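#onboarding

Welcome to the new folks! Below is a worked example of what a typical request in this channel looks like: someone posts a single protein sequence, and someone else replies with the predicted structure as tokens. Don't worry about understanding the tokens yet, we'll cover that in week two.

Example request:
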Amino acid sequence: MSNSNPSANSAAPKMTWYGKTFNILLKVLMSFVGITMLSLGATLLRSSKILGLDPFTAVNIGMSNHLHMSLGLYQLLANLVIFVFVLFLDRHMIGIGTIMNMVLVGFEIQIFTQFYQQIFPEGINFFVIVANAFLGLILFTAGSSIYMAPNLGVAPYDAIAPIVSSRLHIKYKTARVIQDILFLIAAVLAGGPVGFASIIVAFFAGPLIAYWNKHISDPIVNGIDDFSEQPTVKHAASTISKATLSGYHYLTHAYNATLNVQMNLSGYTNQTTRN
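Example response:
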């Protein structure tokens, strides 16, 4: 039933122009942080050919090696091709987050990889590989959640499944799995870094991203919206304090969730992913 009391509606706080400015800037910053996190996670997964990468990045690395191009440049070109199709099929999925993801991810992976190789010039042992698997998967899935949560647009690759789902009237989950499997096959044919982590990302990243959405990303977005209504220093300090404590608490749980996914892959059911 709708509320017909005009005074009740007028009591709702209205966001001022500077509040809206803060809201946009903070959400852009949130998307940037998320993109940087997923790039760092992809770098850790890329550190060993045993681990592999997510299907899309694996294809891009394989093709860029064949064409003797940098990963950043090739991934940007690949994103531009997909971007054109998304622009015609569903332009509502395009925003500043789309552009940021298209431009930044490939180049950030290149930069992080150079730093990583300077830190570990002699190669890595098994224990470092395992640590990279855990941290890489956490950062990749958490970063994906954080950059998408503000609804500023998604990467062209991430827009494929929703468009296919809508056009062919199939479930999004089915469309995404088919998409990732096809790109996984393409990565193998292109000689890209496919491994254990590639399988994990293709089939089990969804539940982890849903976990981050519920416990980290959505609360941050709500905090930004709440702060933007009353952008004061005191309010900002309170919001940051709550976010820090909440993030620390759920980071531990997210690590355990990641460990369970990797050690007990069959433990995830449809009911689990909805919780």
